[in-house]
Design a protein that fits this description.
transcription; binds adenosine-5'-triphosphate; 3 domains; Rossmann fold; transcription regulation; alpha/beta; P-loop_NTPase
């Protein structure tokens, strides 16, 4: 997706030349010839980068003053200054005032393109870092080899390239946001922003400002909203069920005509965004209860995508545990330790109502709390109290004993029995389908079931 670059220069030939070079490179451009039209163009829609001449003949404000206006309202908007030959001091002062870099006239095409690419990259990196901080540093790939995880990945591959809106459902912590990020990364919009709005954590009175941005009484841009920030990219509406009713109507309007007005503003801002949304709640029930607009539901969920909870893919737990161990160990420096079969059996048998997020948090605690001899195996008795406190949820030996207190071989058997029993139930007693799913020969499964007293 093309970036939206604003070129501000009073000299028409330079302005058009820069815009022409960038257009040829596949960037989207707009131009402005003076300070007022530049500020108006930024107000019309936040560009991804501004190329700004320091000397703006015949303008109300010079380039440095325009830079100040930009940095005051939108410090993250990158600005590249064009300075005349021998004006290094002014250029340096522009950088001190927040410009990303400067380019001296006359310049070579390659240099211009190089600076523009670097500025855009730096800006997207900045966004990613900010994002990472909010997400407490754990962006990852979609891990798992279960058929559920494989299906999810292949559906994502299929739908990523389209522009369709997707409503992602699934229990809390299952990986909905991760799936949305993958869709964005695999889409033609990958180089443009991925902006997250979490309706569950923003108070209703702030929601519209966060989504649409704010203008003051004189029409100056005071805050850039998520819709504008996501221009060219993807907007992820997390937990849409929690959107206030009034905001739902406004979002519906944006979906219909791809434009909106900022809070306090009157003019329309045109945007090109793809909306992905998610919910862990039952939206149909919300609709029946009059809490969610049916028309919005249909527009958001052009393509539905279900992300299954961990209970539906327990086979993935060992892979996920191993992956998180390595991820956490390399980020924190805590040495990796192998995890014993008994501890893994406990982790694999637990219900994990908070799904992958809860599993990850517990792996982290496990690694931290069970710090000991490097290379020594983490056994079930080393599981931290937080995991130990889940004991009531663990299967018992039948005699009321918890899995933690039985020998490993028995624990494995109990786990195996529970697992196979659940799979048989899932396939309505069909042995062939169960065998295929669990990856065993039909006859071997038969023997196993017999030995476990299940047939
Ligand atoms: N398949 C997976 N592989 C690796 N990490 C995963 C996987 N699924 C989820 N995670 C990780 O688990 C955590 C929770 O995932 P995510 O935030 O995507 O869940 P969610 O369904 O959007 O949660 P919520 O409903 O609370 O918004 C994140 O740290 C994410 O990176």
């Amino acid at each position: 997706m093309a970036h939206d670059i604003l070129v501000v220069d009073d000299e028409a030939d330079i302005r058009e030349m820069i815009a022409g070079i960038l257009d040829d490179e596949g960037f989207g451009t707009r131009t402005a010839s003076n300070s007022d039209t530049a500020i108006a163009a930024i107000k019309e829609r936040r560009p991804s980068l501004v190329i700004l001449d320091i000397w703006l003949q015949g303008s109300r404000l010079d380039g440095l003053a325009v830079l100040d206006v930009i940095k005051e309202t939108d410090p993250d908007l990158p600005v590249v200054i064009i300075s005349g030959h021998g004006n290094i001091e002014t250029a340096v002062s522009a950088i001190k005032r927040g410009a990303y870099d400067y380019i001296e006239k006359p310049f070579k095409t390659d240099r211009l393109i190089h600076i523009v690419e670097r500025a855009l990259e730096a800006s997207s990196l900045k966004r990613e870092i900010r994002d990472l901080k909010q997400r407490s540093g754990d962006v990852s790939e979609l891990i798992g080899e279960s058929s559920a995880a494989n299906n999810l990945r292949s559906t994502i591959q299929k739908i990523a390239g389209t522009n369709s809106r997707i409503l992602i459902t699934g229990p809390s912590g299952a990986g909905k946001e991760l799936a949305a990020r993958q869709i964005h990364t695999l889409s033609p919009r990958a180089k443009s922003p991925f902006v997250v709005i979490n309706a569950a954590t923003i108070t209703p009175d702030r929601m519209e400002e966060e989504l649409f941005g704010v203008e003051d009484e004189s029409g100056n841009l005071k805050k850039v909203g998520a819709f504008e920030e996501a221009h060219g990219g993807t907007l992820y509406l997390d937990e849409v069920a929690d959107m206030p009713a009034e905001t739902q109507s406004k979002i519906l309007r944006v979906l219909v005509d791809q434009s909106f007005t900022r809070v306090g503003g009157a003019s329309k801002v045109q945007v090109d965004i793809r909306i992905l949304s998610s919910t862990a709640k039952n939206l149909e029930e919300h609709i029946s209860a009059g809490l969610f607009r049916q028309d919005l539901y249909h527009r958001l969920g052009v393509v539905p995508l279900y992300v299954p909870g961990l209970a539906e893919r327990r086979e993935d737990i060992p892979t996920l545990v191993g992956f998180f161990m390595e991820q956490i160990s390399s980020a924190s420096g805590i040495p990796l330790r192998p995890i014993g079969d008994d501890a893994m059996a406990v982790l694999q048998t637990h219900d994990w109502p908070g799904n992958v997020r809860q599993l990850r948090n517990n792996v982290e605690r496990l690694l931290i709390l069970s710090r000991g001899e490097p290379d020594s195996v983490i056994t079930a008795d080393l599981l931290p109290a937080e995991i130990g406190s889940m004991l009531p949820n663990l299967p018992t030996t039948g005699g009321g004993e918890h899995l933690m207190s039985v020998p490993l071989r028995e624990a494995r058997e109990i786990f195996e029995r529970d697992y196979l029993q659940a799979q048989i139930k899932r396939f309505d007693g069909n042995i062939s389908r169960t065998a295929e799913f669990v990856g065993m020969e039909r006859s071997a499964l038969h023997r196993k079931l017999k030995s476990l007293g299940l047939s």
